[in-house]
Amino acid sequence: MTRIDTAAALEQWLEQRGWFEDSPAPLIDTTELRSLGRITLRLEEHFRSGWTPGSAEVVEPYLVIARNVMRYNSIPAWSPDHIVERVDGGGTNEGLFLEIDFPGLARIECTEIDVERLPAEHRMVPPWTSGVDFTLTTTEGKLPPAEFWSDQAEERIGNSVVWRTLGGPAGSPRDYVGWFLELSELVADTEHGVFCFHASAEAQGWRVHFHRTTADDALWQAVQATAAIFTGTVKSGNCTFTTPEWERYLRTGEFPQP
User: What tens digit of pLDDT does each residue of 133-145 get?
Assistant: First the structure.
């Protein structure tokens, strides 16, 4: 186990490990905070052959023990599925700090940190979807007009759905890129919805990219389900689905085989 007790040493240790960017959310154990004044966490450095499901990856985990903890600001709600944006560290007037962004900031202030490299693990990259984005690409027909998407969502959820601009009223766009789908009854009280990030004709067919902001669950599910009626592919997270696979995933949570 290696002890780190200077800001320079901590910064160098993190930099050498790429600031643990794009690693899984760490397991943070605070059970010994009151009795021993320490917090234990596990950080992982990942070396991947690719990002697609089934790609090989080597994981080099580290046990990190923050000792003589003076302050700890946790994140109210987080999931093991979250991804670390970056782990920062440095000095304070009283010692050291670690700051973990995954998303939101968890901050630990202490006097010294012990780190231990654990045995490497060999894994396969798991499939995941973003939960807030998908892109549909199809060679079927022409790019649908704006009312197609609002009508389909309305039919699926049994409630009026409209297009609206950011914080604005309902409208009827010819080009709906930059517009939001929203429940009619919520337009007066919200600013967003399901955002159309991209929609364009391709050399063969068309492509559309939707992004969920603050949309109602039922509305987001309806927009996702509408994509499944076409023949094409849907990309979300690190997965590429055929549209029948996408429909099955939405219904059962089953990923396609790599």
Answer: 999 999 999 999 9
- What angle do helix axes 243-252 and 217-227 make, rounded to 10 degrees? 150
Burial (Cβ within 10 Å: 0-12, 13-18, ≥19) of residue 10: buried
Per-residue pLDDT tens digits for 111-131 = 999 999 999 999 888 898 988
Structure tokens that stand for 154 in this block? 């309305």
User: Any long-range contacts for 15-21 (C-beta under 8 Å, 24+ apart)?
Assistant: 17/43, 17/45, 17/62, 18/45, 19/86, 19/87, 19/88, 20/44, 20/45, 20/84, 20/86, 20/87, 21/84, 21/85, 21/86
- How far, in Å, CA of 102 to CA of 14, rounded? 16
Rg of the chain in Å (alpha carbons): 23
Residue type, 81: D
pTM of the model: 0.70
Note the Cα 126 to chain centre separation in Å. Answer: 14
Quote the CA–CA distance of 4 and 117 in Å, as a whole number.
Answer: 14
